Structure formats: C-alpha cells, structure tokens
Amino acid sequence: MYFLLSLLTTSWLPVNAYLSESWSLMSSDRPNVPKCVDIPANLTLCQNMQYTQMRLPNLLDHDTLREVIDASRDWERLLQLNCHPDAQLFLCSLYAPICLDKEILPCKSLCQAVKNGCEPRMAAYGFPWPEMLSCGGYEEGDMCIKPVNSLKPTESTCAACQQVATYENLVDNFCRSSLVVKGKLGKISSNSIKVRNARSLKKGDRRRSVGETEIQLSAQGKDCPCEVLETTDKSARVLIMANRDAHGHFVANLIVPWQKEKNFKRAVHSFQRLNCHSLGREIRESARRRPHAYHLRTHELPPV
Questions:
Q1: Same domain as 182, residue 146
Q2: Where is the signal peptide (predicted)?
Q3: N or C: which terminal CB in the chain sees fewer CB atoms within 10 Å?
Q4: Domain count of the fold of the chain
C-alpha cells in the first residue's frame, strides 16, 4: 500500500519543504495551534496505517486522545464487517488525520464509496449513516484523500472471495445466507464452483449432509478472479455461504478456508444458537451516539 501522501496530487507543492514546515509548526507550543501526537496502541480503529502520528484536534473536533479513542470504538465492529476496503482509510482520515499543518479532508468520492459499501450493512442492524459523516461536506480537489480501491468491474475480485474471517463478518453473512456449508472444493470454473462432501451448518437443518452443489461466484454468473480457490488445496475444507437468486441458482456471499483460529471457531460454534433477529443489538448499542454529539466542522477547500 502506498504511503498516504501518494494519494494526494501535490505536483505543484514541494512536499519535503511542506513537511518540514508542518512538523515545525506542529511541535510549537503556541496556543490554539494543532499538535502532532503518536497514534496510541489503544486507538484500535487506526492501527497499521501508513503513518504513526496524528493531528489534534482532529477533523471531528476531538481535542484529546481520550475523546478520539472513546468515539472511535463505535466503528471498530464496522471494520470487522469488511463492508468496504477503504473504510479504515476514510474513518481514520477524520479520527486520526495525518499530521500536517493544513487539514487534509477525504475526497467526496472516498466518502461516497465507503458509504455505498457500508450503509446497507449498517441499515440491516437498525442504524443509518450518521449525519456527521455526510458526504455532502466534502469535495473533489488536488488536496484531498482519494479512494485506494477503485478497481474497474472487469478487474474486481469476486466479492465473496474478498471476505475476512472475523467473528462479526462470519455471523453477519451467516444470517444473510440461506445456504451455509462446510465442504470440499469440486469442479472450479471462471464463474462457479461445485462443493462436495458438504455438511450444512444452518440451525435446525435436517439435511445435515448436502449433495454436490453448484454455486455461482457472482450475480448473473459473471466471471471474476477468486484467489481463495487458487490457493486452497482441493483436499482442504472450506466454509461457503450463499443465497438463491431469482432463477434459483446459488450465488456465493462468502468463501473462506476452514480455520482453527479462535474467533473463527467461536463464530462457527455460535451458528446453532445464533438469534439473527437480535444480532444487531450489540452493534447498535456500541454505535449509539454519546450524549455529547460531535459534528464535523465546515471546511472549505483552498482555491486551486
């Protein structure tokens, strides 16, 4: 992944001189001047970013690290749902912005891409895209953070093959899928797979053993690359979740190798007792706004 500054079009700006000036200003003791601080280890949302220091106050008007950490916890589970690959980039551009003198906002295209990917998943659990993150407050320009994952449809990996095996994502997809099986890979083509020696994991399913089943990799049976299938041995087990489309064909929602990792096993063990109707309660409670609401400041991009 490129360093975050490579996302900015700054050909007209001497970057080294700009950074030097910024660090100098950030480290000053003058009142009301933003400062640079290390991203703390307990700011889980923004770990493993391509920079280690953030700007305070941030773009949501949090003045202290405690405020940032408390507010950011609302979004940790959203990242675990893997609703969009740029979700962390977008959220951390607001909660833990890179430490420069001038504020660098996310581009409107970045906000909209993340919103389009995550809003439906959030709505399924009973809460809307928050007004404080409205994409109407952003613009396109030279000095804004652009989307990283903007592959053309013909180049895109199958969505089912990009899923992460976090507890939250596994139970979320379980509740959204009518077919959930543990099995072995059979015949593989560019747009479908066959699963053999499969066992259903759906609660109360009397047909525990499932015959060879063909599953499309994407809607309308379109071709798309699936690295999971290329790297998984045919003798190994896989977890597959799917739904039937309007034509009665199964379309994959999730394909991951079977794992012995702690949270993977925890998710699988929960399948038989999972109440999908109340699954969003914990997420809704963690995402509920605190009594003091934070509002994104009104920004204007400098003229280009």
A1: no
A2: 1-17
A3: C
A4: 2
Question: Which has the closest alpha carbon to 195: 205, 204, 186?
Answer: 186
112 with 172, same domain: the answer is no
**What range does the domain containing 119 cover?**
4-150
Q: What distance in Å separates the CA atoms of residue 110 and residue 104, rounded to the nearest whole number? A: 13
Based on the number of CB atoms within 10 Å of its own CB, is 29 exposed (0-12), middle (13-18) or buried (19 or more)? exposed
Residue 146 within a domain = yes
For residue 83, the tally of other CB atoms under 10 A from its CB is 19
- pTM of the entire predicted model: 0.61
- 266 shares a domain with 176: yes
Note the pLDDT tens digit of each residue in 230-283.
Answer: 888 878 899 999 999 998 999 999 999 999 999 899 999 989 888 887 766 544
What is the number of residues in the chain? 304
Q: Are 191 and 222 in contact (CB under 8 A)?
A: yes
Contact yes or no for 29/21 (Cβ under 8 A)? no
CATH code assigned at 207: 2.40.50.320
Strands 237-244 and 209-210, sheet pairing: unpaired
**CATH number, domain with residue 47:** 1.10.2000.10
Buried/exposed 258-277: b ≥16 CB within 10 Å, e otherwise: eeeeeebeebbeeeeeeeee
